[in-house]
Amino acid sequence: MTMIGTRLTNINELLELARRGENQHEAALISHLHSFSHVVLRGAGKFGSAFGGFLISIGFMTERLSYWDIRAPELGTVNGIATHLPFAQTLVPAETLIINCIPNGSLSGSVGEAEFHSRGFEHYLSGMALFEALMCSMKSETGFDAKVCIGTPFCNWCACERLPSLLLKQCRDSGLLRFEDELVLPLLTFVVNQKCTLKCTHCGQYINHYHPDDRINFPLSRILTDIDRMLEAVDAIGYVSIIGGEPFLHPDLDKIVDHILGKPNFGVIGITTNGVCDISDAFLSGLDRHRTRLIFSDYTPALNNKQKALFQRNINKVSAAGFSYTIGQPIWATPASLRKLDLPASTLAAMKAGCNSRHTCKTVQNGVYYPCSTTAGVGSHHQADYPEDWAVLDDNANAAELRSNIQKLDQVEAYASCAHCGEGGVMLPFSGEQGVGKQYIHIESARLPDSKTTFINRTSSLPCSK
Hints:
The chain is of the alpha/beta class. The protein contains 18 helices and 14 strands. The chain has two domains: 11-134, 3-Layer(aba) Sandwich (Rossmann fold), CATH 3.40.50; 178-459, TIM Barrel, CATH 3.20.20. Strands 11-10-9-8-7-12-13-14 form an eight-stranded mixed beta sheet, with helices on both faces. A six-stranded mixed beta sheet has the order 3-4-2-1-5-6.
């Protein structure tokens, strides 16, 4: 196959600029894609299907394209493009480009990359980055538009850089920036409770292993105060994620969402639910449809028939109400065991430098800002007392001090909690397996003896700051 196009040596540099809104690089990026004799799209789901259609629209013949997907036998072809099991084709690695089309939260940038490189496929790009750079209709000239994000259900806000970049520009143009430097969080998660309707063995929140006294909905006043303080301390938050536990178990979820909607410096809200809960008509009727999406994590392969029926009823209800929603079966890996390992400082620094969680898993949970998922696990389950690893919001005198502490947390070489992150990361055949896993039971016994509801007792009575 004769190749057309010019292969770039600085592809990642140009891609990062383009995905943030510098549209003058589009032609060079498309030329780079055309410089390969074959392009493999890893993942033939909704995102992969949309991206494959885009490649066809810019001149790729279907014979130059293929999908690699573990569901290949049942999928057949997608967009007229043949699907294959991963690595089932004989291709020339040097002339093959792999595009990751599995936009899956903290794993979105890394699914399969190490294995592709180990097999000689060195040309690997993020499909989400290419989507932002080439397909997203939200342009720098027109600025941030929440309707574009809400109306594009197959892209992944967790990994998006265009959204926070254009939102920051809007905040700057509107005179909302109050500090000399800039601090924008692409994603910030607010955890509203530590209770759930499911018992997922490999839950990233380790819900099965909370002390009984900690299986609670956090007080509304605490959550609203946390929202106020975080949105005062940063310039903008692209995607505000609301999770649990199961957020629909919180009786004041509507008030939490409304409070965020009153802020001028955020982009969109996503409420992640397992769908095996009560989603009331009253909640849906009062929810702002323009900036809020319900994100259904589909664990039905692991659920019983009653749970599956409830999941489907909720989908039907949300659809009938005209709400933006997505349904996906998340790709899960085993979470860190939270056991402390004896690792040298150089290893801990390398772990933090290469960790995607520090970009996609910044979390506020019961009055505490955690810079990554492992610090949140260590702190919320009271596995160790590492005050240097997180910021207790009420310990900061004002927004400027909290802002400074957030920035300092990002800049440290490694967290003490990184020593608790050395076990885990094994890809699972499916998400949502039910039951208590023996590999996490030690979390309960390792709990600090004097830590019973430590942060809850310190913060639950605070009024909402204005």
